[in-house]
Fold:
Amino acid sequence: MEQRVAKRSDNLESSLNQVRNVFDVSNILEKRQARPQIIHYYFINRLTLLFYNSHGFFHYGISYDGKYKKDDHKEHARIIERYIRERDAKKVMELGSGLGPNIAFLARRNPNVVFDGVDLSNKPLNRNTTPPNAFFYFGDFHHLSQFEDDSYDIIYIIEALCYATDKSRVLHEARRKLRTGGLLIVFDGYQRNRVEPLNPSEGVMWRLISKSLACETIEYVQVVEDYMRKEFSITEVKDLTQCVLPSLFRFKRLARFYFRRPTLARAVNTFVPHDVVKNTIHILLLPISVERHVGCYYMHVLQKE
Structure:
């Protein structure tokens, strides 16, 4: 449903000026984010993301009580586990499995289920490869021909569909691998459907958020749902935006410290890799995007008819 946006007084303009004082914004906005850039982004941020969460989860936590806890990063897997047990699933795949924490968590708790993970940017951590029913493959989720058709009960994607250069292709490939009645579960961030178009500052903000996350563009919820309906029935939709806010706010104080000292920040930029320091941009701007009803976070459950 589209939303009308009330006028807000926040610090968007000053935040954008802070970003301009530290980064070459034009260069960030003009640089295309494609497969090589995505691979490099996750490779160079591997240690940073492990620092962010010692369990190796790259996604935001789902915090129902409004307070961030490290264990909240496991909530996506707990939700998926409920579907696994309800359906007595025997074979499950994760697209964009990264360092493998979701598969390892689920595989240890569900030893009679086979879990396959496919990813093009990171090898799983050694501790995540130990369950005998967990298997990891190098591959691109646009092309899943190495996996058997009509063989999976559940496929899930956590904060990775936004990186697809052809979402329709990814959804079609997932559908081919699922058995009839199988589920595709998607957690991801989107641009919220709204009546009013983004104003110029909001447009710059959203493009900066996308590029700093190594996404070429983060699309409207409705646009992605249209892709989904071409391949699946949408059986469940949950807006989890408020539940990920505690994760968004976790490092905002550090980002504010960084941007309020532009001379120091520019010095840091000279020796810290660009794909690491540019994370400060979305840390600063994502909470503002939620306040302005621009950014949102959803779970979709899709079924193959």
Observations:
- The CA atoms of residues 9 and 113 lie 51 Å apart.
